[in-house]
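Hi C.,

You asked whether I'd gotten around to modeling the 248-residue construct. I have! Everything is below, sequence then structure, no commentary in between.
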Amino acid sequence: MYDVATRKHALRLLADGRSMNSVSKETGISRAAIRAWKVRIEPLPRLNQTAPCTAPADRAAYAYLLGLYLGDGCISPHPRGGEYLRIACADAWPGLIELCRAAILAVRPSDKVYVLQRQGCVNVTSYGRHWTSMFPQHGPGRKHERRIVLEGWQQEIVDAHPWEFLRGLIHSDGCRVTNWTVRNGKRYEYPRYFFTNKSDDIRRLCTDTLTAVGVRWTVLARGSDPLNVSVARKASVALMDAHIGPKY
């Protein structure tokens, strides 16, 4: 038996032009089951399935987790129903790993969270039945190769907790560095924040939120690609330091 989210995910893959054989290999679901769902179109819910999630338990924690997800997160279906949320965190930032774990527990207190060690990083992982509804940006392919748009309820949470959202983005795909320059023979150092992401949509979510909280930013190109959002003005860096600070 498979839950509704898993069935809809398989049907979305078919709608995107994937073959039934490739969908079966990716999801671990038999072609017979997928064929039956395709005929039925709208799958029936499982018996005794828990009620769909309507809202995160902690909106501020969700804003932070949304930033982490857009940077380094993914969702994958379980062959027997439900789905896994995975957030990749570098081993170099043990504090970030714990913050990610705490955010998941705050958003979904009933779901368990565990850490899977990988080479150079860990996957902070949670199994549940509502992650695709919590993060409707999930879909086939890489995030920068498809549209990423927030739902209205997500945007309301970001508007209410912009700094938590920005903290999640910076903690996933950003950093605080110290730049230096030479003027009149003297070396000057100054702090700077960067956010780097290949997705135009995700960078726009970042810059729109920065503008909303009064942070001035610029975009720096890597080669011909405008991948880096930079915050370097003294007042804006001080504002970022007050609300975000470096990873640890």
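If it helps when you're writing up: Confidence is low (pLDDT under 50) at residues 40-52.

Thanks,
B.
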